[in-house]
Structure formats: C-alpha cells, structure tokens
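Step 1: inspect the first sequence and its tokens.
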Amino acid sequence: MHYYHEIDMLITNQIYEQGYISYNMENLTKLQHILFLRVLELTLEEIKQYFECTVDEKNKILGCKMGALHLIKQLTTLKNSNVFYRFK
C-alpha cells in the first residue's frame, strides 16, 4: 500500500505522527482493483491510464486481457496433456 501511495495511485485520508497511514473504503476498493489489474499483467502506467478511462474503455481493456489469459490457460492445458507430439 505504501508503494502505491508513494507513486500517487492511492491517496491517504490521514497520516499520523507515528507514520501510520489511514485509508478509507474507497481506497481499499481501488487497491483491490490495482492488484487485480496487476494479476492481468497491466503495467503501472497502464493502470494509471485505466483509472482515467471511460467504462466502455475499461471493459475493452479487461476483455482483451481476460481473453489473452484464457488463451494462455488453454495452451498450457494442451501442452500439459501431451497432445503435442514430436515429429522427425
């Protein structure tokens, strides 16, 4: 969380004298989105742009990434199922 705060992706509600940082529910929800987008392998720059997009643009980005991940999963399943044979 501190990292995302340092790069201005999360805005804190309050910083206490002891150095503790307080986040509200909106920030925690945004953090969940950030972590999900990282799982989809979006870069930090892409994530920053994502939060500035319209809903339609966000849906397009997610659709593309989810489709790519689905394809990778299918290829991995095929590879692990020994369907591929070596021909000489």
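Step 2: inspect the second sequence and its tokens, then contrast the two.
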Amino acid sequence: MKQYLKKWLSLFLVTILIVSMIPEYVGLAYSDSKEAEEQQTDSEKETISTDNLKELKDKRTATTKTFTDEKGNYYKEIYAEKVHILTE
C-alpha cells in the first residue's frame, strides 16, 4: 500500500510540475506575437487625405496643421520645416 501511495504521489507531483510550466510558455509566446503585430501595424499606417477634412486654424503651430472630420476625430500633419509664418 505504501508503494502504491508513493507512486501515485510522485506521478501527481510530476503532472503538477508539467502543467504549471504550460501557462508561462503560452503567455510568453502570446506576448511575443502581440509585439510583432503592433510593430507591423505601426509601420503600415494608412495615409489619410486631408482634402475632405476641416482645418482647425486655432490649433495651428509653425510646423503643424490639425484637422477634424465629421465624426469628431482629429488628425495632425507634422512638418520638419515651418509651414505657417506669422506676419504682422
């Protein structure tokens, strides 16, 4: 009877150890794939035409233009050089 109990206990402990390693591996694999997807979406951003958007002139800076659409979403164009120069 003792030998049966020892076998059962050792089998139980081995099973628990194996099962406890699975979620850690799955979690790491999922986080790696999620980071790769985020990097792809950042590099593949869609270019939006500003022809049908309304410019918010009060949000202008020397190097940016801010637009809004009919849904209330904001879009900002950022330039390396000054595009708006204040003249007096």
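Step 3: confirm your contrast with the notes below.
The two ends are 99 Å apart (CA to CA). DSSP finds one helix and three strands in the chain.
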